[in-house]
Automatic annotation (TrEMBL):
Listed Gene3D superfamilies: Hotdog Thioesterase
Protein name: 3-hydroxyacyl-[acyl-carrier-protein] dehydratase
Function statement: Involved in unsaturated fatty acids biosynthesis. Catalyzes the dehydration of short chain beta-hydroxyacyl-ACPs and long chain saturated and unsaturated beta-hydroxyacyl-ACPs.
A GO term for molecular function: (3R)-hydroxyacyl-[acyl-carrier-protein] dehydratase activity
Record's keyword terms, sorted: Cytoplasm, Lipid A biosynthesis, Lipid biosynthesis, Lipid metabolism, Lyase
Compartments, record wording: Cytoplasm
Organism field: Brassica campestris (Field mustard)
One GO location term (cellular component): cytoplasm
Amino acid sequence: MAASNSIFTISPSRNVARISLNQSLSPPLSLPLNRSSSVALRPKPRSSSLVLCSTDESKITAEKEIPIELRYEAFPTVMDINQIREILPHRFPFLLVDRVIEYTPGVSAVAIKNVTINDNFFPGHFPERPIMPGVLMVEAMAQVGGIVMLQPEVGGSKSNFFFAGIDKVRFRKPVIAGDTLVMRMTLVKMQKRFGIAKMEGKAYVGNTVVCEGEFLMAMGKEE
């Protein structure tokens, strides 16, 4: 059945446009309009612009293009081995600190020990599986603590220090030849009257904790 012609009327008193398609159909559709506005029913064109989003794949690709030997920066040097030897009394084969990479006077020090197959303890610990002895990790951490203790801000460079105690020591993961042991020692409490200091230490390989514990240091004047 053919539909009658559509009628488009505007009522100025009610500010409403009425579109009547057929009187026998449902009630007319009402659209609110301003007097000064016109009605334009047009299909919204689709945007043809392309949005590009960055992904992790592009970053991974860029990293692969950089040779691996150029991706990682070297540790900074705050104290080199010669400066360390001026502070610590230890010498080969028991000097277990190679470089200080961060130092806050009277508070903390961060140092590294490069663990190599040429270290003199590996032939016996163990020949078929070279693992750094846990007691030497503790000794290396204590030497980093000594760098804090023997500075003028704490005890003075003309003093010796000794172990007074170690508590809550835990070994989390073996340290093997080829690892770089990064050790942080922090001064927690200092009793200058008795020459006793409490320190907390953690050692890392990469971002993994391999050893941690609490240390008591005793200061002793040189004879």
